[in-house]
Amino acid sequence: MESLHYLALIWSMVFVANVLAIKTKMLPVLWFLALGSLLANFGLISGDGNEFISVLAELGIILIMFALGFEENVDNFLSSIKKSWGIALFGAIAPFTAAYLVADHYWDNTNISLMCGLTMTATAVSLTMISLQNVGLAKSTAATRIMTSAVLDDIASLALVAVLVPIASGAGPLDLENLVLIALKAVLFFIIVSALGAIIFPHNFIGWMRRIPFIGKYGIRHLLNFGRHSTLTVLLLALLVGLLAHEFGFHPAIGAYMAGLILKEEYFQRKQQKGSWEDTKRIVENMAFSWIGPVFFVNLGAKLIFDKDLMLSVFPNIILLITSVFFAQVISAAVAARYTGKMNWAGGLMIGFGMLGRAELAFVVMDIAYVQNSILNKEAFFTLMATAFFLNILVPITITLWKPYYSGDDLPTQNPD
Fold it and tell me: Of 174, 169, 124, 164, whose CA–CA distance to 254 is shortest?
């Protein structure tokens, strides 16, 4: 019964966290982490974990990453890449480099530095969109560019996690042969998933493929619309692709995200029906962000057992990492928006401020690196958690302060200086 007591306590904190998130206009994720840490520090739950809660938290990661991929509109995303690729590229390289160098300065460990860089790469787009909506800029050009860049960064981060975590965790020696092998496995996995999304799911079989028994006649639409069990079907798909990723040596969350990304609205029932896109999406998001997914964040927050000496020792690390990532992110995104996206400086800086946040994917990387593979030491873990927390706080503050200087029309700059 201890596991059920833990779960009841965690769900109570999830409810409280959601109330606090509404009152403070902050991401619920931050409150999940904070209240999980509070429970552990008061001895109400174990920071070392409970087997049932740990399994539920693992399922939570898979659901969260699947939901994030599932809600992406790939067509809109692809149409915006042309003007956003530079923002995504330089807006990811700069914070990765800044975090890597800071970590290397303090811990002089390549594996730790790589994980710190990965953690600071992906953007918390949900927090940014809420902040932009609060100041009336949810439909602005800056919002569109941030959304597209964030998706590109997330996909790139997942690819890097797939390649770098097996190396950093000691799954193989750090030599050219092993690097090539891991890279080839990553490429093969993404090719398989891409084939599912481009050929198998759309059911665009040609030639001899149409004559394959059963498979040549029935496709993903038939499965999703069979008996109105679309939610079960998509969750099974997320789990199977996650297990496929695991067989390739990667985290199941990577597969779950890709599974969500290749599903399209056109495969589902018509609107307003049970089993429709909207109905399935609502159920998946409810599971991922309301009652199973939050267990992952509360459980991760429980690893933050406060130690006065430790907190004092990492305080300079936190300040330097926040400062480095802040300037690297804002300047790189602004310059890229100006010269590759043809935006003015005001719009470019707004994009830079909007890309400061670190949310779901950053904490998934921390969990993989600290809890599951022990790549990060305790000092690095505390530093990253605190940095992510304060960067998230800076998003609504900087966006609100910068709005008076922001050009809402985002007119292209014809003659860059």
Answer: 164
Rounded to an integer, what distance in angstroms lies between the CA atom of residue 7 and that of residue 124?
A: 27
Domain containing residue 297: 2-405
Where helices occur in 196-266 by DSSP H, the ranges are 220-224, 230-247, 252-262
User: Which residue do the tokens 């029932």 mark?
Assistant: 269
Question: In this structure, is residue 118 part of a structural domain?
Answer: yes
Whether residue 186 is contained in a domain is answered as: yes
Helices (H), 171-229: 176-195, 220-224
Are the CB atoms for 125 and 147 separated by under 8 Å?
yes
Predicted model pTM: 0.77
Domain membership of residue 411 (yes or no) is: no
Cα–Cα dist 153/357, whole Å:
13
The rounded average pLDDT for each run of 10 residues, N- to C-terminus, in the chain (417 residues) is: 88 94 83 92 81 90 87 65 79 93 95 93 73 76 79 77 78 64 83 85 70 70 78 93 88 86 83 78 91 90 88 95 96 90 87 86 88 91 92 88 72 41
- Backbone phi, psi, residue 302, to 5°: -65, -15
Q: Which residues pair with 192 in a beta bridge?
A: none
DSSP 413: P
Alpha carbon separation from 82 to 78, 85, 387 (Å, rounded) = 8, 6, 31
DSSP 84-108: HHHHHHHHHHHHHHHHHHHHHHHH-
Concatenated DSSP letters of 8-65 = HHHHHHHHHHHHHHHHHT--HHHHHHHHHHHHHHTTSS-TT--HHHHHHHHHHHHHHH
Domains in the chain, number = 1
Q: State the CATH number of the domain containing residue 380.
A: 1.20.1530.20
